[in-house]
Amino acid sequence: MPDASWYIGTGPAAHYTEISTRQGLELTSVFFSDGGQERLFNNGKTATLGHSDRNPVPVLLENMCTRVQFMSAVNRERRDFLLTMTATTVAAVARTPRCDAQDATHAMRGRIRKAVKYSMVAGNASHADKFKMLRDIGYDGVEVRALLQASEADEVRAIRAAGDKVGLPIHGVLNSSNPDLIGAIEQAEFYGGNSVLHVVRYDTQLSYLQNYRETQEILRRAVDHAEQKKISILLENVWASYLIEPLGMARFIDEIGSEYVQAYFDIGNVVRWGWPQHWIEVLGKRVRKLDVKEYSLAIAMDSGMRKAFDVPMGKGSIEWDKVRRELINIDYRGWATAEVRGGDRQRLTDIAEQMNQVFLL
Q1: Which letter does DSSP use for residue 105 in this model?
Q2: Spatial separation of the C-alpha atoms in residues 124 and 50, rounded to whole Å
Q3: Which residues pair with 22 in a beta bridge?
Q4: Model pTM?
Q5: Which of 19, 31, 71, 170 has its CA 20 to 30 A from that of 268?
Q6: Rounded to an integer, what distance in angstroms lies between the CA atom of residue 203 and that of residue 333?
């Protein structure tokens, strides 16, 4: 190994510390990419990209895309740095990973499948034309509302036919707090989806504990069918003033005791009471799908809580970099479905672009 070299890659401080110890090298500088402009972090302070002699005490940033300089103790005067090393192996410079703003802030490209609620698509076009428009905009799929009445059977068949024709998946159905989970599971299977979004009801006419027991019993009655069909019942966090903190939601799910009863995490809904990154930390692998919207605490204070949703993603109170970090920490890979005010093609295009921005897609 050369006396002075660069390691280019991502990883926590312990990774680079272990390398330097094993190789008998001294870690002298750390660079990372910040919005396309590289910065030097030494002793917790930033400086313009420069020579490693300047205060060579590194601060490694966990999971950032870094360029880390090692220098052997016996050749500290050598300053001819070789850009020939990656974080794991010797490679040509052309094979080194990109160090750009997306790598540095936890890009979700390749992890997120982008969707909308079908009810957001405005206009009187046919189902097939609506599905084609969503596909052409760049959505990967759609989620539809469960239609369980016998009179709605033709509509269900028409929606499925449109999805099949266009090749846009219907990834699940929304069933709200309807206790007919068996019917919703059957419909999700018919569409080729893998989930039913369920809202745990809060009947304030019952005692809290009675409501808790009864809502769990609704789920338990459907578990065998969900497991047989391999359709997950995913519980969404909503504004019902019930299950509004993550430990309670996690406990409620765990007490059902089924791999097919998990969480449908709504990123924007929790900002009224907490922070989405904290919910993701607690719920962990229970998070199977995401609803996506923004929320502005400033607007909530000035104009009312409901109006606080009417803000573009990335322009409110949600700390999307922290959300992305926690999603990567739990190795989330799956659907993210916008649940915002819909509209015409331009509006749906704007929503898709907002999702690209907040998830770095």
Answers
A1: T
A2: 60
A3: none
A4: 0.73
A5: 170
A6: 34
Residue 318: C-alpha distances to residues 160, 268, 275 (Å): 35, 8, 8
49 compared with 153, residue with greater pLDDT: 153
* CATH no., domain 112-359: 3.20.20.150
| Listed residue (112, 111, 96, 110) closest to 10, CA to CA | 96
pLDDT at 72 over 90: no
Q: Are 58 and 42 in contact (CB under 8 A)?
A: yes
Amino acid in position 222: A
Neighbouring residues of 209: CB distance < 8 A, sequence distance ≥ 6: none
CB of 352 within 8 A of CB of 139?
A: yes
The secondary structure of 8-38 as a DSSP string is EEE--HHHHHHHHHHHTEEEEEEEEEETTEE
Pairing of strands 195-198, 82-86: unpaired
Edge-first strand order for the sheet with 45-48 is: 45-48, 37-42, 25-34, 65-72, 4-10, 82-86
pLDDT tens, residue by residue, 200-209? 999 999 999 9
Q: In the structure, what pLDDT confidence band is assigned to residue 54 with cuts at 50, 70 and 90?
A: very low
pLDDT band at 14 (very low <50, low <70, confident <90, very high): very low
| Pairing relationship of beta strands 37-42 and 45-48 according to DSSP bridges | antiparallel
Per residue in 108-137, pLDDT tens? 999 999 999 999 999 999 999 999 999 999
Answer whether residue 85 shows pLDDT above 80: no
- In Å, what is the CA distance from 297 to each residue of 33, 79, 339, 355? 31, 51, 18, 20
Structure tokens at 356: 């690209």
Q: Where are the domains of the chain?
A: 4-104, 112-359
Do residues 342 and 122 touch, judged by C-beta distance below 8 A?
yes
Residue 90 per-residue DSSP state = B
